[in-house]
Amino acid sequence: MPILSHHLDQSRVMEIQSSSSSRASSKRKSAIPCPSTKLIICIFLVLTVLILLHMQPSSFFPSTKSNFMSKLRDSVTFLPLKDLRFTNTAMEGNTWFMSSLNDTREENEAEYLYFPSESSKGRLLCIKGNDTEDGTKNSYALAWPECLPDSATLLSGLTFVSDTYYDYENLWHGVSAIAPFVGWSLKNGCSKPTRWVLFHWGELRDRMGTWIHNITQANFGEVFIERFSGEGGDGPYCFEEAVVMRHNVGKMGKERKLHVFDMLRCKARLFCGLSPGGRGKEVNRRGQPVIRLTLLMRRGSRSFKDPAAVITVFARECAMVEGCIMEVSQSEDLSFCDQVKVMTNTDIVVSPHGAQLTNMLFMDRNSRIMEFFPKGWLELAGVGQYAHHWMAEMSGMDHTGSWWETLGEKECPNPQNDLECFNFYKDGQVGHNETYFAEWARTVLNQVRTSKLEKKTKRSQAKSNVCKC
Ligand SMILES: *[C@@H]1O[C@H](CO)[C@@H](O)[C@H](O)[C@H]1NC(C)=O
Ligand SMILES: *[C@@H]1O[C@H](CO)[C@@H](O)[C@H](O)[C@H]1NC(C)=O
Ligand SMILES: *[C@@H]1O[C@H](CO)[C@@H](O)[C@H](O)[C@H]1NC(C)=O
Ligand SMILES: *[C@@H]1O[C@H](CO)[C@@H](O)[C@H](O)[C@H]1NC(C)=O
């Protein structure tokens, strides 16, 4: 019974409140219209009052203010998220995503947009954007918090809004989309987002691939991806605070990238229950430095044609170097944390070209990469084939080079058409050259051993490996 009476009390209170507030608002209304018979007196009074108030009508007449507010509300203009005028230069300048807004540029940082800010004149970012197939059907606008567009939902907290030309599934592409937010957070008191809004060409995306999801979670905690399907229907939704990234790592400087990848590595190791500092200095029974060589294999496209032969070559070279331990891992079979663990325990990774190599970022800095391509890539793939050279540079690794299977005679159906021809070869398997692989392995193993021996004699520098955020 006490619960019920409390309930009744509450509803009575609410009744009283609502009736008193409706009285208040009706009082306010009745004060405005002047009866026509007393019009002249009314105008006189108004003028007198205006003079007395030093010409500040808006503070005295709520209707004038609310008129003004409703005009502001109606003047909020939504523009398409994807601006087709920039179709041919979608990767340059402002990009076609929110094309009317300029990025904030700070030395060495990824370019970003922040709302509300001085440059947005205190306005919030609003998005009406649940279309998943056509970015021109989604739209954005800026609005003052006091005059959000009608039926807008205000989403509180910090929102990370990303637009990528690529996707949030592929390891390489996904991590390049996430990295600038890690950089922004590092610089801004390690702030964590309440939600993510993901776009590709202005089209809404409602998930990240598992690996991307996990690395994001490792950095920022629980990942909530906004789908614009809450109580506010398809929107608009306005964000209390929003950071927008639309160039991936873009203009981020080399040092900044290294910090971001240090952070990604450190957080992933903690997330997976490993020591953030890695395995430290590992020596074998004879006190010699341990060198861990990992063959990171894949199945299907771009797998080794004869994995057993490749394993034999590397195993033989490894056996000839004091302290060398070899492991063969099948990348598809590893969970996110298994991948982090394998790579934390790797000094040299041997792997065919593919997204699995993005895992290199979990190795200690200055670890080594040996990459292998099927035929056709050197001749036809263009700069994209250097993606893992860039990844190595960003994450502070040593890419020791690539081996390309030679193309020889072009066997593609239409040898004149390079693109068609590349698509023909792209997902082929990777052969091997025993002599070349053995010599290369020997060189890299000896380099790693030498550098480990040098480090062993140097006094170990006490380096803090605690994650910065
Ligand atoms: C964006 O930058 C361009 C070129 O610097 C400038 O002309 C334009 O006025 C800027 N737009 C806004 C909205 O600040
Ligand atoms: C990785 O993310 C998936 C969902 O994308 C989730 O099911 C899984 O539990 C995550 N792994 C860890 C270790 O949290
Ligand atoms: C977007 O929202 C509208 C209104 O709620 C709904 O009818 C539509 O199906 C949604 N579109 C997508 C792609 O979810
Ligand atoms: C294999 O590699 C060796 C050493 O680089 C080279 O001399 C030889 O021509 C290569 N063999 C083939 C078939 O390409």
Automatic annotation (TrEMBL):
The chain crosses the membrane at residues 37-55. Residues 291-370 form the Glycosyltransferase 61 catalytic domain. GO terms for cellular component: Golgi membrane. Signal peptide: none annotated. It is a single-pass type II membrane protein. One of its GO terms (molecular function) is pentosyltransferase activity. Keywords: Glycoprotein, Glycosyltransferase, Membrane, Transferase, Transmembrane, Transmembrane helix. It is found in: Golgi apparatus membrane. It holds the Pfam family Glyco_transf_61. This is Transmembrane protein. It comes from Trema orientale. The lineage of its organism: Eukaryota, Viridiplantae, Streptophyta, Embryophyta, Tracheophyta.
